[in-house]
Design brief:
The strands form 7 sheets. Strands 7-6-5-8-9-11-10-12-13 form a 9-stranded mixed β-sheet, with helices on both faces. Strands 15-21-18-19 form a 4-stranded antiparallel β-sheet. The C terminus is likely disordered. It is built from 23 helices and 24 strands. Helix 14 runs parallel beside helix 16.
């Protein structure tokens, strides 16, 4: 009969080998490794979707094939072979006992384990009950996990990521969310007492409280929190070396998470936390933004107003989405509450994770606790409590701190003037002159495949280039179907690293076949980046490069094989058409440059007026008006240029 203590699931094997779960499935389907056959071990049961494998066979197979990214497979394997019938809480309790006593548990009889637990927990407050119901298989597995770890904290992490941990795991907060709450709570603690204050766990996520408690003098778990969750939290705290107590102390930081609760329950829990604060205490509360920040209706709105009315909430923030894995589209809210009343409320809406800077948020929280109006806040903005009590949201969307102007007005003026020098330049029109010809009957064309067979078309492939080889001072461009990619290489290094790479020639059509797109390289000498390829036309092809590129750019996304693309036979008109299309492409490029300049000017005008540095004194299209024709109100303004190069009037600095 197979030993249940020595089996691994596919997820266990992935964790052991430090690879993704899908990689292990691929190994099972591909038994050949470096030309030799290494069949994957056969499962010992037929459990649909979750087969199990003998640990010894899997370890031998991984060592023989060299697959995976873990050089210590033979040492780590026992930690992932969780025996059947053992619960996570049993293993955590046994690990707690081992971390306190330092004893190896696997070789001790069950009565000896109970005696050890009784010495530590005579009143059965957190451990004795679990040890009395523990198994010898669980004790041996706890020893295996401890042996494979660098310490009790890492062993706990292995247990929670192991098979039994995955069966009961919930998707908690991301590392960014944990770091934010930890940084804010630690800053509040230092504000209360630099020597250190305790953290009070008032409910919610164990992992959140344990993560934050690392930076505190001790973790207080009130007796009112008794129950299985209370015992589990105490066990984990002892494993991680966190001092615990049930006696409250002043001052302290209270931590509470209401994630997963409905709005009514959330508000009731928060109300209880605030009522339990002392005059010098601070509470950090994490919950859904829908309850903490957004507009509410009916009884929920009234209940939240009653919670806010005393003025305990000093800071409220709507946090970005994606911080809670259980509901990654749900935005979270953060409240910081002071034990004293009549505090002024400051709020902010942090829209994206890119805007989330935990130390700056914590600095704003400390300034809000101090009610320091002389400080420049990065995020928080003063919010009138009367508006919130008047059925408005706590944190209106887009609320951010006022930004003070630090740029000199003349700088804004100069930037706008520089932008108008480009937009005010006259842009010549583009025209094409055509002459009628005698029509022909033959309008058939050829495919690119036929041109290739006739030796009138060559196709060159690109290759991949390492971004780390980019040299800003390089002279060799790397191009694709959109033009230069921004990667440049030193000429000698390019020859050394990529001696056989395709170099473009003047007139080459650089293209991609998927979602067809093409561009003509007018200079040549560039390196071609895959998946782009090159069409190189020979004389007599009956079509020019710009014409072929224009045809490719008009093809549908489902155009298919490039060799099957048909092109017209233009005969004597090919050269003139290609020259016109080249000029049209150049004109389009100038239009795009002008459009970019207009967009740049738009942004500079908005920024300048928004910061009070300039005012708009006039505007208009440049139609050749001379400066002497300007109105008197525009005198002294600068920026526009007429068709003859005369400086006109556009803006006035303030």
């Amino acid at each position: 009969m197979t030993d249940p203590e020595a089996t691994l699931t596919l997820s266990d094997i992935a964790a052991l080998a430090h690879v993704q779960r899908a990689v292990v499935s691929s190994w099972r389907k591909r038994p050949t490794v470096y030309g030799r056959s290494f069949p994957f071990p056969s499962p010992i049961d037929d459990t649909p979707g979750n087969p199990r494998f003998r640990q010894e066979e899997v370890v031998k197979w991984l060592q023989a094939t060299g697959r995976g990214n873990n050089p210590d497979i033979h040492l780590d394997a026992p930690a992932w072979s969780t025996p059947d019938g053992v619960s996570l809480e049993e293993l955590v309790a046994l690990l707690c006992l081992r971390s306190i006593t330092g004893e190896e548990l696997g070789e001790l009889p069950h009565d000896a384990l109970v005696d050890l637990a009784e010495e530590i927990d005579q009143e059965d407050q957190f451990l004795l009950r679990e040890i009395r119901t523990s198994t010898s298989a669980g004790a041996r597995h706890t020893d295996d996990v401890s042996e494979a770890s660098h310490g009790p904290a890492e062993a706990l992490d292995l247990l929670e990521r192991g098979r039994v941990g995955r069966e009961h795991a919930t998707r908690g907060l991301t590392d960014a969310a944990l770091d934010l709450v930890r940084t804010v709570a630690t800053a509040c603690a230092r504000e209360l007492a630099p020597a250190g204050v305790p953290l009070v766990h008032t409910g919610g996520s164990h992992r959140l409280s344990l993560t934050v408690a690392v930076d505190f003098a001790e973790l207080i778990v009130p007796d009112s929190e008794s129950g299985d969750d209370h015992r589990a939290l105490l066990q984990r705290a002892m494993i991680q070396g966190i001092e615990t107590s049930s006696d409250t102390a002043l001052p302290s930081v209270h931590l509470h998470s209401v994630l997963g609760s409905d709005t009514s329950s959330t508000l009731d829990e928060i109300d209880g936390v605030i009522l339990g604060l002392g005059q010098s205490d601070v509470a950090v509360i994490l919950g859904p933004a829908s309850a903490l920040c957004d507009e509410l209706q009916g009884n929920d709105e009234q209940n939240r107003a009653e919670t806010l009315r005393p003025g305990n909430v000093v800071f409220a923030a709507r946090l970005p989405r994606g911080l809670w894995r259980e509901a990654h589209r749900q935005a979270l809210g953060l409240w910081v509450c002071a034990g004293r009343g009549d505090a002024r409320l400051r709020v902010t809406d942090i829209a994206t994770l890119d805007d989330l800077d935990a130390p700056d948020v914590a600095a704003d929280v400390v300034a809000a606790l101090r009610d320091d109006s002389s400080r420049a806040f990065r995020y928080a903005r003063l919010r009138e409590l009367s508006a919130v009590l008047g059925k408005q949201p706590v944190v209106p969307r887009g609320t951010r701190a006022a930004r003070f102007v630090t740029t000199e007005p003349t700088d804004h003026r100069d930037r706008v003037i520089a932008a108008t020098q480009r937009t005010a330049e006259p842009l010549p029109g583009f025209d094409v002159f055509v002459d009628p010809t005698i029509g022909t009957i033959d309008v058939s064309g050829l495919s690119l495949g036929q041109l290739q067979q006739q030796g009138l078309l060559k196709i060159k492939r690109g290759k991949r280039y390492d971004q780390s080889n980019h040299d800003p001072d390089g002279t060799v461009d790397v191009v694709d179907a959109s033009g230069p990619t921004g990667i440049r290489l030193d000429a000698f290094k390019a020859t050394q690293l990529y001696p056989h790479a395709t170099r473009t020639e003047p007139g080459d059509i650089v293209y991609v076949k998927d979602r067809p797109k093409a561009w003509v390289d007018p200079i040549g000498g560039s390196l071609l980046r895959a998946p782009a390829r090159v069409f190189r036309l020979a004389r007599g092809a009956g079509i020019g490069p710009h014409t072929l590129a224009a045809i490719i750019n008009r093809l549908p996304d489902t155009a298919g094989d490039p060799l099957a693309w048909n092109i017209p036979n233009l005969g004597n008109g090919a050269e003139g058409l290609d020259a016109a299309l080249a000029a049209a492409s150049a004109y389009e490029a100038r239009l795009r440059e002008r459009l970019a300049a207009v967009q740049d000017l738009t942004g500079r005008m908005i920024n300048g007026v928004a910061e009070g540095a300039i005012t708009i004194a006039g505007h208009g299209e440049n139609r050749g008006r001379r400066i002497e024709d300007a109105s008197p109100q525009e005198e002294g303004a600068v920026g526009a240029v007429d068709d003859e190069g005369t400086q006109g009037h556009a803006l006035e600095g303030r």
